[in-house]
Design goal:
Blueprint: H1 9-38, E1 44-47, E2 50-57, H2 69-90, H3 93-115, E3 125-130, H4 139-155, E4 160-161, E5 168-169
Antiparallel strand pairs: 1-2, 2-3, 4-5
Helix pairs in contact: 1-2, 1-3, 2-3, 3-4
Length: about 170
């Protein structure tokens, strides 16, 4: 039974989505700031084919769709709004965390599009994780991927009801 003054589940889940989103954006932007300073003189080998290698992606995902990047950025912002509303309505913590990862990653890359030259949704995204056989990516891309995979996994699982409240959880 919920205690006196307990927030409704939808408010708690929306807060969780927003907290995960904010954490992803902050960590992503700090990592990109570090990469800009530490990798300016060249790549740093890590282990096997993994290296940290500063690149700038002026196109969309994996260097594709250069001319439609502003449209993609605006669409991503719209998805952010819809996903936050869906996270509150879904009633599942796992979905809320997944949406927070997805939204944080999208916003992390949108921040780059806004603040890097030439700006106004046309700036380059800072990428720096190079595995050798895949396009170079960043932590925002990792969060997007993890969020999408988790949403797919969770979509195949039914929500469970908590014993006393009947609220769904995952």
């Amino acid at each position: 039974m919920a205690g006196v003054g307990a927030r409704p589940l939808s408010v708690r889940l929306t807060s969780l989505v927003l907290a995960v989103t904010a954490a992803v954006v902050v960590v992503d932007q700090l990592a990109k700031r570090w990469a800009l300073a530490a990798l300016a003189d060249g790549p740093i080998p890590v282990l096997g084919p993994l290296r940290l290698n500063l690149t700038y992606n002026r196109a969309a995902a994996f260097g594709l769709g250069g001319n439609i990047v502003p449209l993609l950025a605006v669409m991503a912002a719209g998805i952010v709004v819809v996903a936050v509303a869906r996270g509150a309505a879904e009633g599942r913590r796992g979905v809320a965390v997944s949406l927070g990862l997805l939204l944080g990653g999208a916003l992390g890359n949108i921040v780059d599009r806004l603040v890097r030259e030439p700006g106004l949704l046309r700036g380059a995204v800072v990428d720096f994780i190079d595995v050798g056989f895949w396009p170079v990516f960043n932590l925002a891309d990792c969060a997007i991927t993890l969020g999408c995979v988790a949403l797919v996994v969770l979509s195949g699982r039914p929500a469970r009801a908590t014993p006393l409240t009947g609220e769904e959880r995952s």
